[in-house]
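Kindly review this record before class:
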Amino acid sequence: MCARLANNLQQVVDIAIDAGREILEVYASEFEVETKADGSPLTQADRRAHELIHKRLRQLDPDIPVLSEESGAKAFARRREWNRFWLVDPLDGTKGFVKRNDEFTVNIALIEGNSPMMGVVHAPVTGVSYYTVAGARAFKVGAERKPVPIRVKKFNREKAIMVASHSHISAVVEAYRARLADKAEQVEIVSLGSALKICLVAEGLVDIYPRLGPTSEWDTAAAHCVLESAGGSVTTLSGATLQYNKESLLNPWFLAGGDPEFDWTALAHGLE
């Protein structure tokens, strides 16, 4: 399976990079912002990236369905019959895009069963991409296109680093930080947007990302795959691995943890 997926991996990375170029063209302009039914923002960049990715993935393999944030959820009665499908967030971090904070990504994952088997996360502004197929190593590549293998870091009891969303440092996240502070002499909090938070865990720059708030499956799947290949995990607060293609596409609260020898879930007991 790994070899079969790897044959398409570079093509998917290229698709994400090209979608990023579409996004940057809009980013450099005076774009308009619409509001979707759920109150989240929508821009022409979301649409253009979605159209490019959908077209190119269908060209890559017309037999694999594409589920994108911008294509609608599709009925579970239909989705449940899918053994394999692409799960895409054409522009993860649209709020950051609108604020021009540069912290948005293109996320493309291949789901088989209920698990991500390929993951590509591309940051258009920096030109950095993270990618992997399940069972292989995870890589980070910059604009110079030289891939570097990445790995989670060993937990350091002198200083723990936790990453959190700009807009979701809530009381329950602070409670998790306080518990982490019982295990380390110092806890630093880094704020960042989009799937980059999980990727920071994967490349060993931070220890843990507790997402104690709402997300959808397309927000996490690609980075989830990258983190697992880098030695980490994405689990519910009870320790179960995050699942995909559920009846509801909303994720439960989760922990994206680094060092596999540290019990990240123990710190979340009773928080949910």
User: Anything to note?
Assistant: The radius of gyration is 18 Å. The domain at 2-150 is CATH 3.30.540.10 (Fructose-1,6-Bisphosphatase; Chain A, domain 1).
